[in-house]
Amino acid sequence: MTTDLTVNGQRVTLDVAPTTPLLEALRNDLGLNGPKYGCGYGECGACSVLVDGQVARACVMPVKAAAGRAVTTLEGLADARGPHPVQQAFVECEAAQCGYCLNGMIMQTVALLAAHPTPDESTIRWALRDNLCRCGTHLDILQAVHRAIALTADRPAP
């Protein structure tokens, strides 16, 4: 069975069972490795993508739920000007140790800043609370989010 959706601005047709997890289709069929397999239960955030601008856990979302919707992965955040400001901030702040959680942290931060361009510390912590970081780089991640706020404010819309 085929399913049509838009991934990173490109219309794609997937020939997979409608119950196939979106994460599996993104990684195996489209070669997009930004979203990671972490827990398989939608608990850790490593598989996060944006679906119509909202954070979704791709490991528990069936492909059929994404049909006709806009899916954005980590790879789809950059544009012709370069990395997305959130991506740039995470690089500048070296907000990675093992890096496994970064996909979820970045995707959640993008969604947060889209909804709240200048969140305070407690709002940031609340937004990131369900993204698990096992190696303890939390303070660097928070620093990167604050840097992303500044970079986002300085960047005109495309």
As a percent range, the share of helical residues equals 25-40%
Measured distance between first and last alpha carbons: 36 Å
Top CATH class of the largest domain: Alpha Beta
How many beta strands in the DSSP annotation?
A: 5
Give a summary of the structure in a few sentences.
The protein has 158 residues and is of the alpha+beta class. It is 37% helix and 15% strand.
Can you describe this structure?
- This protein is α+β, with helices and mostly antiparallel strands and 158 residues long.
- It folds into two domains: 2-76, Beta-grasp domain (Ubiquitin-like (UB roll), Roll), CATH 3.10.20; 85-154, DNA polymerase, domain 1 (Orthogonal Bundle).
- The chain has helices at residues 22-29, 63-66, 85-92, 102-115, 121-128, 138-154; strands at 2-7, 10-15, 48-51, 54-57, 70-72.
- Strands 2-1-5-3-4 form a five-stranded mixed β-sheet, sandwiched between helices.
- It is globular.
- The mean pLDDT is 94.
